[in-house]
Amino acid sequence: MQQSIKYKFINTGVLSVIVCASVFLQSCSLKAEPDKKEPRPTVSTITIKTESVETSRQYASMLEGVANIEIRPQVEGYLEKIYIDEGAHVRKGQPLFLINDKPFTEQLNQSTAALGTAKANANKAEIEVARLEKLVAAKVISQVQLDNAKATLDAENSNIAQAEAAQKSATINKGFTLIKAPVSGYIGGLPYKVGSLIGRNEPLPLTVLSDIHEMYAYFSMSENEFLLFTKRYSGKSMEDKIKQVPGVSLMLADNSVYGEMGRVDIVKGQFDETTAAITFRAIFPNAGSLLRSGNTGKVIIPIHYPDVIRIPQAATFQMQNKILAYVVGKNNTLTSVPLTVLDKDDQYYIISEGVKPGDNVVVKGTDRLREGMVVTPNNNN
């Protein structure tokens, strides 16, 4: 029994020695290895500063000449002559169409003859009044006969007025048979041919005459853009603000920029209920007639921002519909800050709130960073 107890005691002692040795060896191993720390990532940064920035806004536009006039007949008749061709340039007052004028010539002749008759009758009545006045003065006839003669004279004078009006109307109608250009410009399509019976109620005009010595470019702004526009320029009224808008450019359909500068001159009085947009108009000179009604393009409005903060869009990230950036703060610790974007171009945001001059902002690799991380900044300024 004593031998068994002695054996167990020896085994327990041996096990204790082994455990202590293992713990000692592990302790030595831990002391032998140096402390391991996660290395600080190196990040590219820039120091925020203010600067003057030039940017622009582009708006899809539709071009129209300053006058697009539908040429319509004022009288009915057969189209006798067409003096112009489609696409031709015409001068103001140049003949365009001739409607057969024979019926209107006859009306004019009849009205002229009726006027002559009315004048002759009035002259006869005037002589009669003069004759009767002498007889009344001599008390040969009564005053009633003279009054009747004067009434006849008044009626004949009224007939003269009616005949003169009829003659003027016939003259005007005959004049309408020769249709002339009301302005200088370019002729559109010609849907009617010689011999067509035309009149005021025709569905199509004889042609459309476009005055394109200047061109209107119509473009629209959303409600938000319109509010920014009104805040951007000084002035008590919209007219005053429009006067502050600098000259605008026009990008054509082939992405080339039109050689002449234009100006914004008018804005519609209300928003379109279906599009929630408001329409502006810019005017461009068109001395070379390069622009035509129906052309499309983009109106480019330059915008100047003095003393603003601009940071690359690549330096920002989005979270919950907010645009943020990492600022390297005290002890090189990252802090994310929300940004208020005033404007933007293809590469940069123009910031009104969120960062200030002197802040050190990370410009690359924001997707690998997190709030509170300690970094090693490499400033690119």
Topology (SSEs and partners):
Layout: H1 2-32, E1 42-47, E2 50-71, E3 77-82, E4 89-90, E5 95-99, H2 102-137, H3 143-176, E6 178-180, E7 185-187, E8 197-198, E9 207-222, H4 223-232, H5 238-243, E10 249-252, E11 263-267, E12 277-285, E13 296-312, E14 316-319, E15 322-328, E16 334-338, E17 340-344, E18 348-353, E19 360-362, E20 376-379
Parallel strand pairs: 1-20
Antiparallel strand pairs: 1-19, 2-9, 2-13, 3-5, 3-8, 4-7, 5-6, 7-9, 9-12, 10-13, 11-12, 13-18, 14-15, 15-16, 15-19, 17-18
Helix pairs in contact: 2-3
Write up what this structure looks like.
This protein has 381 residues and is an alpha+beta fold. The chain folds into 4 domains: 44-50 and 307-379, conserved putative lor/sdh protein from methanococcus maripaludis s2 fold (Beta Barrel); 57-64 and 211-304, Beta Barrel (Elongation Factor Tu (Ef-tu), domain 3), CATH 2.40.30; 73-100 and 177-204, OB fold (Dihydrolipoamide Acetyltransferase, E2P) (Beta Barrel); 102-176, Helix hairpin bin (Helix Hairpins, Orthogonal Bundle). Helix content is 31%, strand content 35%. The protein has 5 helices and 20 strands. The protein has helices at residues 2-32, 102-137, 143-176, 223-232, 238-243; strands spanning 42-47, 50-71, 77-82, 89-90, 95-99, 178-180, 185-187, 197-198, 207-222, 249-252, 263-267, 277-285, 296-312, 316-319, 322-328, 334-338, 340-344, 348-353, 360-362, 376-379. Strands 2, 4, 7, 9, 10, 11, 12, 13, 17 and 18 form a 10-stranded antiparallel sheet that branches. Helix 2 (102-137) runs antiparallel to helix 3. Residues 1-21 and 27-35 have low confidence and may be disordered.
